[in-house]
Amino acid sequence: MKQRLEQSTTALNALQKKRGEQFYPQFHLAAPAGWLNDPNGLVYHNGLYHAFYQHHPFSELWGPMHWGHATSKDMIHWQHQPIALAPGNEYDKSGCFSGSAVSHEGKLYLFYTGHNWLAEEGDDSQIYQAQCVAVSEDGIHFEKKGIILPPPQGYMHFRDPKVWFQEGKWWMVVGARDEKDQGQVLLFSNDTLFEEGKQWRSEYKVLGKTDDKNVYMWECPDFFPISDDNEFALVFSPQGKRAEGYQYRNLFQTGALIGQWSPKQPFIIHGHFTELDNGHDYYAPQSFVTADGRRVSMGWMDMWNSPMPSQQEFWAGCFTLPREINFDKRANRLRMTPIKEVESLRQTRNTIEMTTLNNQALKLLDKTPAIELNLTWSLDSQAEKFGLWLGKGLEVFVDNQSNRFVIRRHYPQYNISGSRSTPLPVGCEINLRIFIDRSSIEVFINHGELTFSSRYYADENDRDLSLFATDGSATLIAGEYWTLSTIS
Ligand code: FRU
């Protein structure tokens, strides 16, 4: 692997020299250059947070998957590390696909999918996927140990292992597609995490499966406790779901099923698949536990097969902010809020006085830098719509006609135009905590009741930020914002 790692590093360094800045994030983790997709192997290990990611260091396009790597003390400021895994062994010839990490007895274990095209490159109808392990003593250099779990009979798409320890055993969920092309998550267990030359037990259970005949694959499963009461969330990213009205508009989605599980009982699901985020760009999140016991998750902030204007700058893909996940038992759903450490990015605080806008716009900033905004609006308004404009291409607003919260992008020069929206939360007020980076916006509504993550692509000279209300008046009850510092 050493030689392949050296080649990838040389390619990455060359690409980084050409990498553009206009869209490159100031406070979100992205590869130094080249392509990034799923977060992989998020873990706290020997005093540091590690984030790995699906990475193609040779170009801004998806290609043979490597694992990029970064470390952090606070999950906000990241330091790039050497590429951790490069494909090319017999069992991962075509790529080191997604997976997870485990810190165990001082060593760092990566569980990933060895991917192999059996016919032509890119031909998904003939592949071999198996779960593999790589181990590190120093947390930086990894030794591949090969396959520890081949696919069960009848499964060809079998990927994205997430491993954890519970009640004396090691557990693994894997995303799968059964013989009838239906998405599933399979559950395996083993007494030991890894033993040289030994494989995991091949017995498995189907932890969950689709009830939507169009859904042919469940990718990137994550399964974790959300209460002290055997309540678990199964988070995964289904492929094939059709758009229904305002819902499931992204090519693929990510959501959760909530239920009851213990090693002795099947997963008993309460309620329906609920999307975790409602923006244009959110996929394949992975969670981990922090040093102080919080459940934190990061997702890929981009979407398969969507226009990615950052590619003109020789990079693509970034993570969302790390988000703390909590269970809202009454609503039977997960809530995500930015981890408290994001406050370390804040520079000077600016307040916006309470104000009523009557069919007008109030300019806050031009050439908007990276900022965090905290806005509370009254929902008692007759305006047609009110909210925020960023340049001519991005609107974030309450639509009083449809009674929905909307994020709308319009960048025809990149073939990007359209909106994502949800019904307006119930209440007299709405609180919006908004993070704006150079090409991304994340909106947390009412402390995580809803979240929207979207990429946007404003020209450098079209970055005015305004509050607005059209065709009537709307009241901003309280507002504040901070410019944010750069993480690298
Ligand atoms: C999800 C995914 C995974 C796979 C990886 C390949 O985005 O398709 O299922 O492991 O990306 O890069």
Automatic annotation (TrEMBL):
InterPro entries: ConA-like_dom_sf, GH32_Enzymes, Glyco_hydro_32, Glyco_hydro_32_C, Glyco_hydro_32_N, Glyco_hydro_beta-prop_sf, Suc6P_hydrolase. Signal peptide: none annotated. Its EC number is 3.2.1.26. GO terms for molecular function: beta-fructofuranosidase activity. GO terms for biological process: sucrose metabolic process. GO terms for cellular component: cytoplasm. It comes from the Bacteria. It is an enzyme of class 3 (hydrolase). It is found in: Cytoplasm. Residues 341-482 form the Glycosyl hydrolase family 32 C-terminal domain. Residues 28-338 form the Glycosyl hydrolase family 32 N-terminal domain. Pfam families: Glyco_hydro_32C, Glyco_hydro_32N. Gene3D superfamilies: Exo-inulinase, domain 1 (2.60.120.560), Glycosyl hydrolase domain, family 43 (2.115.10.20). Keywords: Carbohydrate metabolism, Cytoplasm, Glycosidase, Hydrolase. The keyword Hydrolase applies. Pathway: Glycan biosynthesis; sucrose metabolism. It catalyses: Hydrolysis of terminal non-reducing beta-D-fructofuranoside residues in beta-D-fructofuranosides. Belongs to the glycosyl hydrolase 32 family. Enables the bacterium to metabolize sucrose as a sole carbon source. This is Sucrose-6-phosphate hydrolase.
